[in-house]
Amino acid sequence: MWEQARRGNDAPVETPAAELVEAVTEPTRRSRTPLTPHQIDAIRMARDNGESVMSIARRFGLSRMTVWQKTSLPG
After folding, report:
1. C-alpha 70 chain-centroid distance
2. What sign has the CA pseudo-torsion 41, 47, 51, 53?
């Protein structure tokens, strides 16, 4: 389409059906299993032992933010 505009060709462009994107009318949220108290303790212990947030996140399959939240909150 950009090429047509640059060349001055205003004819409509036929888009193949495979390139059309369907709108999601009711998005679903991915379910997340809450961490168990044992997992939270393991995360805190790893952090207390000097393990990096990134390493812990990879090991537990979590986001870095989750690790930060679990290690910076009291109790």
Report:
1. 18
2. positive
In a domain, residue 18? The reply is no
Half-sphere exposure of 16 (CA within 13 A, CB side): 2
Cα 58 from Cα 64, distance rounded (Å):
9
Cα 48 from Cα 44, distance rounded (Å): 6
Contact residues for 54 (Cβ-Cβ < 8 A; gap 6+)? 64
Whole-structure pTM value: 0.56
**Domain extent at residue 42:** 33-75
Long-range contact set of residues 2-8: C-beta below 8 Å, sequence gap at least 24: none
Query: What digits encode the pLDDT tens for the residues 35-48?
Result: 999 999 999 999 99
Domains: count for the chain: 1
Q: Which bin fits 23, alpha (ψ -120 to 50), beta or left (φ > 0)? A: beta
